[in-house]
Specification:
The protein is α/β, with parallel strands linked by helices and 191 residues long. The protein is 38% helix and 18% strand. The chain has five helices and seven strands. It has a seven-stranded mixed sheet with strand order 2-1-5-4-3-6-7, covered by helices on one side. Strand 4, helix 3 and strand 5 form a beta-alpha-beta unit. It is globular and about 75 Å long. It starts with a helix and ends with a helix.
């Protein structure tokens, strides 16, 4: 009778061991064979307003951390990475340093990174401001206080980013953290 609990414990230990071994094997395989980087192919504008590649990005007005009302149209003439994010989102935290590096490197090359924080999901505006200040993010941070803009821009998963050319044309929508290589390709290859 005592062998049954012992057998169950051994089976459980074996299953845990197999799970750990499989996880380590997959992790090792991913390091040796990384996924190919997502590529960027510029698209031409089609004269329509919307969120699909080729459409002109719709306008929206938001409040900056400094309390100023900012329209997305104000960024026309620059290449824009429009990023929806939150302080509690791990992939958002992961991509922010890479976005800051790109911004520091290319802001004089007509690049603008506009980070739209889902303020309605945060504790306070001060918490967002402290988070941005602590990470030394110098690109514009705008606040979506009620979720209307994130809904309009279909930012359901975070982070969600739109790559927009200098004419205001949507080039690509990315769900998940932006890679430095994709940001670089966008900067080099878009108008």
């Amino acid at each position: 009778m005592k062998t049954k609990p012992l057998l169950m414990i051994l089976v459980l230990i074996a299953l845990i061991g197999i799970g750990v071994w499989t996880s380590q094997k997959e992790s090792h395989s991913a390091r040796e064979n990384p996924k190919p980087t997502e590529s960027f192919q510029p698209v031409n504008g089609n004269g329509q307003t919307g969120l699909k590649p080729g459409n002109t990005l719709p306008d929206a007005a938001l409040t900056s951390l400094e309390g100023k009302t900012v329209s997305l149209k104000e960024f026309r003439g620059k290449k824009v990475i429009l990023n929806f994010w939150a302080t509690w989102c791990p992939p958002c935290r992961k991509e922010m340093p890479d976005m800051q590096k790109m911004y520091s490197r290319h802001k004089d090359d007509q690049l603008e990174i506009v980070a739209i924080n889902l303020r309605y999901t945060e504790k306070s505006t001060e918490a967002v401001s402290d988070y941005v200040e602590h990470r030394k993010a110098s690109f514009p941070v705008l606040l979506d206080r009620e979720g209307k803009v994130s809904k309009k821009f279909q930012a359901v998963s975070l982070p969600t980013s739109y790559l927009i050319d200098s004419n205001g044309v949507v080039q690509k929508k990315i769900i998940g953290a932006l890679s430095p290589s994709l940001m670089s390709e966008f900067i080099k290859r878009s108008k």
